Amino acid sequence: MYDVTVIGAGVVGALIARRLAAYDLRICIVDKENDVARGATAANSAIVHAGFDAKEGSMKARMNVRGSRMMEQVCAELGVSYKRNGSLVVAFEHERAEVEAIYRRGVQNGVEGLRIVEKEELFEMEPNLNPELSCALYAPTGAIVCPYGLTIAAVGNAMDNGAELVLNFEVVSIEKTAEGYTLTAADGRAVETRYLINSAGVYSDEIAKMLGDESFSVHPRRGEYMLLDKECGQTTTCTIFHTPTKMGKGVLVSPTVHGNLIVGPTATDMEDKTDTATTTEGFADIRAKAGDNVAGIPYGKVITSFCGLRSVGSTGDFIIKAENNAVLLGGIESPGLSSSPAIAEYVEELLRGMGLVLTPKADYNPNRAPMDAFRHMSVAEKNEMIQKDSRYGRIICRCEEVTEGEMVAAIHANPPAYDVDAVKRRTRGGMGRCQGGFCSPEVIRILAREWGVSYDAITKNGGGSYINKGRTKVAGGNKEGN
Amino acid sequence: MATTTKTLTCIVCPRGCTLTVTLDSALENPVLSVEGQGCKRGVDYATAECTHPTRVLTTTAPTVDGGVVPCKTDRAIPRELLFEAMKAVNALSAPAVVRIGDVLLENLLNTGANIVATANRGYN
Amino acid sequence: MQNYVDKTAPYTALVVIGGGPAGMAAAVAAYDNGVRDMVILERDLNAGGILRQCIHNGFGLHRFGEELTGPEYADRYHKMVVERGIAVKTGATVLDVTPSEEEGVAAYVTAISEAEGMFTLRAGAVVLAMGCRERSKGALNIAGTRPAGIYSAGTAQRFVNMEGYMPGRKVVILGSGDIGLIMARRMTLEGAEVKAVCELMPYSGGLARNITQCLDDFGIPLMLSHTVTQIHGKERLTGVTVSKVDERRRPIPGSEIYFECDTLLLSVGLIPENELTRGAHIGMDGITGGATVDQYRQTSLKGVFACGNVLHVHDLVDYVSEEAALAGSSAAAHLRGELTEGRAITLKTDGKVRYTVPQAVTVTGNTADVTVYFRPSDIYRDVTVTVREGGADGAILSKKKRIKVAPGEMETITIKAADLTATTADTLLVSIEESAKKGGNA
Question: C11-133+271-339 maps to which CATH number?
Answer without folding.
Answer: 3.50.50.60
